[in-house]
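for the recovery benchmark. tokens below, seq after
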């Protein structure tokens, strides 16, 4: 007998520590790649700074949501000291002070999606501007004109 057979103290395979380390490293790399991919594919505008960088235009104000009934409400009359009313006055001030070299004659409020608040914004903006000067509000919605019902 040249070499006697000896029972090993630990198994030769599988090497659990090595498998655990490689699996942890692979999971970490996969997690980082997923986070980076989600960040790069994110097309949501999260702040006014993002919107300004994207469009190159100045953001006048961020208007908060409010509960509305069946029709849009005139928040400047209903709650003159509310957050929405203050935001509309900020929009008015921003419009008046944005370019002092020439006075704006026309302002368009538009959107590509229905029920987004075009009539609410335009009516409240007309009231806010009407507190300083004469205003003519023209409702160009030919399908469902609602400005006259609200005012």
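predicted aa per position
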């Amino acid at each position: 007998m040249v070499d006697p057979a000896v029972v090993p103290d630990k198994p030769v395979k599988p090497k659990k520590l090595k498998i655990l380390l490689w699996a942890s490293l692979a999971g970490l790399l996969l997690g980082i790649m997923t986070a980076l991919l989600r960040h790069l594919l994110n097309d949501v505008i999260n702040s006014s700074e993002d919107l300004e960088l994207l469009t190159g235009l100045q953001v006048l104000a961020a208007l908060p949501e409010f509960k509305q009934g069946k029709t849009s409400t005139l928040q400047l009359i209903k709650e003159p000291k509310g957050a929405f009313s203050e935001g509309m006055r900020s929009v008015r001030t921003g419009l008046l002070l944005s370019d002092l070299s020439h006075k704006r004659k026309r302002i368009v409020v538009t959107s590509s999606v229905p029920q987004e608040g075009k009539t609410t914004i335009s009516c409240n903006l007309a009231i806010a501007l009407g507190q300083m000067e004469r205003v003519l509000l023209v409702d160009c919605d030919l399908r469902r004109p609602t400005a006259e019902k609200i005012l």
